UniProtKB/TrEMBL annotation:
<protein>
    <submittedName>
        <fullName>ABC-type lipoprotein export system ATPase subunit</fullName>
    </submittedName>
</protein>
<dbReference type="GO" id="GO:0005524">
    <property type="term" value="F:ATP binding"/>
</dbReference>
<keyword id="KW-0067">ATP-binding</keyword>
<dbReference type="GO" id="GO:0022857">
    <property type="term" value="F:transmembrane transporter activity"/>
</dbReference>
<feature type="domain" description="ABC transporter">
    <location>
        <begin position="24"/>
        <end position="263"/>
    </location>
</feature>
<dbReference type="Pfam" id="PF00005">
    <property type="entry name" value="ABC_tran"/>
</dbReference>
<dbReference type="InterPro" id="IPR015854">
    <property type="entry name" value="ABC_transpr_LolD-like"/>
</dbReference>
<dbReference type="InterPro" id="IPR027417">
    <property type="entry name" value="P-loop_NTPase"/>
</dbReference>
<dbReference type="InterPro" id="IPR003593">
    <property type="entry name" value="AAA+_ATPase"/>
</dbReference>
<dbReference type="InterPro" id="IPR017871">
    <property type="entry name" value="ABC_transporter-like_CS"/>
</dbReference>
<keyword id="KW-0547">Nucleotide-binding</keyword>
<keyword id="KW-0449">Lipoprotein</keyword>
<dbReference type="InterPro" id="IPR003439">
    <property type="entry name" value="ABC_transporter-like_ATP-bd"/>
</dbReference>
<dbReference type="GO" id="GO:0016887">
    <property type="term" value="F:ATP hydrolysis activity"/>
</dbReference>
<dbReference type="GO" id="GO:0005886">
    <property type="term" value="C:plasma membrane"/>
</dbReference>
Length: 267
């Protein structure tokens, strides 16, 4: 974990290559909710390199979803800064933030399949996800049928969402999320409602698409089997970032039940 100084001009440092190209940087991030005592995020610092894949773990209420919505530019931080490449997400005016959300960053919120249009077909859902793109951008994008075939939905391309299985809907939500060619894909519990078979298939697909598109991927999960497929895991607790693990070593996993699993030499 890289902890950076809040006074540093992060954008300038990034342009100079000090942080590597186009990383996601988070500096002293706080989020409170008016009228609520809890501080959902209390000073999160982190740095994610381009193309990196990170899984966030941690008990319920530890701030994972809040962090994801801030990274996705869906909510604004109460304090602190978020940088994506040379943009400072946390200070962008709303129209530019909307532009960023429709192109550079895709967020699959918890229960993302609920945001699909139930009475529209799979193809229509992809077209809808690309509504904010210009005609030229849409022409450059992967054609709907090709994208659907890529996620294993070729046979249901013209079927309405309400007739699809949970696994098919999650694949479609993923196809919609990557359909705009984002630099960063954020997914909150993308496999929590799925059978083991569908869960493994969706996670493999996320990694395959990441390989093909070079997308930076951040996933929130409470499933250790899912986290184990990620080269980097970060655990959150009480609105703070805890210990990190890399490449399967030195994991300190705070399970959904709040149990801390220490590496053997620390136990
Ligand atoms: P997680 O995804 O790890 O379960 P959340 O980010 O959803 O955690 O929540 C972190 C804390 O912030 C919790 O205490 C939760 O109750 C609170 N919180 C989240 N969103 C809101 C909101 N819109 N209004 C009030 N409190 C919220
Ligand atoms: Mg959550």
């Amino acid at each position: 974990m890289t902890v950076v100084d809040a006074d540093v001009d992060f954008g300038e440092l990034d342009r100079q290559g000090g942080l590597g190209v186009r990383c996601l940087g988070v500096v002293h991030l706080y989020r409170t909710f008016e009228g609520h005592d809890v501080v959902a995020l209390q000073g999160v610092d982190l740095s994610i390199r381009p193309g990196e894949r990170v899984a966030f773990l941690g008990p319920s209420g530890s701030g994972k979803s809040t962090l994801l919505t801030l990274l996705g530019g869906i909510q604004r931080p109460s304090a602190g800064r978020i940088f994506l490449g040379d943009s400072e997400i946390s200070r962008l005016p709303e129209p530019e933030l909307a532009r960023l959300r429709s192109r550079r960053v895709s967020t699959m919120l918890q229960g993302a399949t609920r945001n699909l249009l139930p009475y529209a077909t799979a193809r229509q859902n992809i077209a809808f996800a690309r509504l904010a793109l210009s005609g030229a951008e849409r022409k450059q994008a992967v054609p709907e049928r090709e994208l659907l075939a890529r996620v294993g939905l070729a046979s249901v391309a013209d079927q309405v969402v309400s007739t699809m299985s949970g696994g098919q809907r999650q694949r479609l939500a993923l196809a919609c999320a990557v359909s705009t060619g984002p630099q960063l894909l954020l997914a909150d519990e993308p496999t929590s409602q799925l059978s083991h078979e569908d869960r493994d298939a969706v996670i493999s697909l996320i990694h395959e698409l990441g390989d093909e598109l070079g997308t930076t991927i951040v996933v929130v999960t409470h499933q250790p089997e899912v986290a184990a497929t990620f080269p980097r895991t970060i655990t959150m607790k009480g609105g703070r970032v805890g210990l990190e693990g890399r490449d399967g070593a030195e994991y300190v996993v705070i399970g959904a039940e709040g149990v801390v699993h220490l590496p053997t030499h620390l136990a």
